[in-house]
Amino acid sequence: MQLLPHLALVSLVSLVAAQDLGVPLSWRKFSNTRPIAERITIAQNAINQMTPQLNAATGEFNGIGYWQSGNVWSVLANQDHLAGTTTNKALVVNNLNLVFSRWAHYDQFGFNDDAMWWAQAALYGYRAYADTNLLAHAVDVWTHVTGYVITPAQASARKNPNKAFTLESTCGGATMAGGVFWQTSTSDQSVNSITTGLYITLSAFLAEYTKNATYTAAAIQSANWIKAHNINANDLVLDTVNAFDCSTSPASWLFTYNSGKYIEGLSVLAAVTGDTQWSTLAINILNAAVKTTAWEGADGIITEGVSTTSNNDGVGFKAIFIRGIHEAWTRNPSNTALRTLIHSYGDVQYNALLDLAATGSTYSSNWHGPPQAFTSWGQLAALDVLTSNIDTN
Ligand SMILES: *[C@@H]1O[C@H](CO)[C@@H](O)[C@H](O)[C@H]1NC(C)=O
Would you say residue 205 has pLDDT above 80? Predict the structure, then answer.
């Protein structure tokens, strides 16, 4: 009878380890044979259709929001990073400096996620061009947003100095420490996954670039917040927890970018710490997220953020997801099954854009098509797929 608990434990462990990273055979066209030079050209041509929409006075793009504009700069920097070019360098550096000079901490509207989308762009710019001003912008935003991260002491005292209400110390039995407030307003109570996921990613990249353990500790503390509070039973990242009363966003609020940004942050954190619990968690979420019916059908093509006649926030989410799983691809070079899965999923989106949604080098936000005239938001959504496929194809 002594054996039973032992056996039960063994089978539980093997269940967890036996993650099936297989590619669903129902996916539409999960490979393609375009050579790398062609993939670089396809992605840069799409960028070249976006840049005429730049408003030179603001550093933002016509037709999309502030956070989405920050993400255009991200993909321009990543294009140069992956292609080994400097084609976009002057535009990226000059405009990230311009916007930083216009809005303290990149905070135009009192949203910490907005500030960090731009700080993230600055970090990708630093990665691509080694421009230390861009690194300094990211550190400035990190320091600013850190005032909105619930510390263990604040969770115990039930008080954050930037908030005018009493916090819950714990929600669902887990400490609220590590959660990051979405907005800077003293009354807003939301702690959400995208703001916390951005903070994890920023912290992990800063830890990698500066070797300063303060950033590593911050990334771990916030990674633990999402892990404890905001992952559903199907391994998808949920949206919001209210720090005043522990109420949550509806279970149906499932958005690609919440999982995508967390996957990105965990992938970098795993590399920085060497702690495989973070890569294992990232891989579990990734495997669920590329197969869920929440945002794709049996063909694998993402259906979230289809908006052909007007912009909305949701159009920009899938770009963040694709960028996040690209980081997982980069950080797990010897995990062949994972890399095949990311490659295949990326090619499904790539082939859909090129076969079904393209008008020349411009793309509809509906990746099933039909093609339509250029929109800034459709183009934004496509850019990360085209650039990521330089690597993952
Ligand atoms: C590490 O980073 C923190 C946060 O930005 C900063 O306060 C501290 O001075 C840094 N430490 C060193 C040795 O640079």
Answer: yes
Query: What H or E segment, with its residue span, contains residue 376?
Result: helix 376-392
| Whole-number average pLDDT of the chain | 95
| Average pLDDT of the residues in 336-350 | 98
Maximum alpha-carbon separation in the chain: 76
Residue partners of 159: CB distance under 8 A and separation at least 6:
166, 167
How many other C-beta atoms lie within 10 A of the C-beta of residue 4?
A: 8
Grade residue 2 by pLDDT with cuts at 50, 70 and 90.
very low
pLDDT at 311: 98
Position 23 confidence tier, pLDDT thresholds 50, 70, 90: very high
62 pocket-lining for ligand 1 (C-beta < 6 Å): no
Spell out the domains of the chain, with CATH numbers in brackets: 27-370+381-392 (1.50.10.20)
Other CB atoms within a 10 A radius of the CB of residue 172 amount to 11
Select from 212, 221, 272 the residue to mutate for testing ligand 1; criterion: most ligand atoms less than 8 Å from CB. Answer: 212
Whole-number pLDDT of residue 9: 43
Residue 18's pLDDT band, with cuts at 50, 70 and 90, is low
Instruction: At 153, list the tokens.
Output: 């002491």
Atom of ligand 1 nearest to the CA of 212: 1
How far is Cα 351 from Cα 355, in angstroms, rounded to an integer? 6
* CB distance 212 to ligand 1 below 6 Å: yes
Residue of 214, 215, 272 best suited for mutating to test ligand 1, as the one with most atoms within 8 Å of CB: 214
Distances (CA, A) of 183 to 83, 112, 174, 191, 392: 36, 6, 22, 8, 35
Nearest CA to ligand 1 atom 6: 214
